[in-house]
What we know:
mainly alpha
Amino acid sequence: MARKPTYYEVLQVAPDADREVILAAYRTLQKKHHPDSGGSEEMARLLNEAKGILLDPARRRAYDEYLTSRNRPRPAAASGQDWEEGSGRLPRVIHNHEAEEEDGAEPIVWILVGLVGGLIGVALLAYATTVN
Length: 132
């Protein structure tokens, strides 16, 4: 099975890139890969997903921990590789409900996201019950 690119590789940024660098890389790649510009919807979705994870400090921390726990080295610098050029297809990456690894275990990132979402739902339900 081929190695999945990290969100850092997708956005072509270094793992220690700050918010401005991530946004600039996202905008540049989105201009090139947006469906209205002749790009693919899948690549645009992947770029949005990567930006969402890397710009949210809590989600980025959880993602970095996931990368570390999987013994996957974080890239030392931006690779400059364009994932769409050459192969004609996109690499398989972590997607919300498709995020199963070879051993069948779900990555910790999506477990944490699910737990947080569940806690928010319970809190909203409790608040709505006390208001009425």
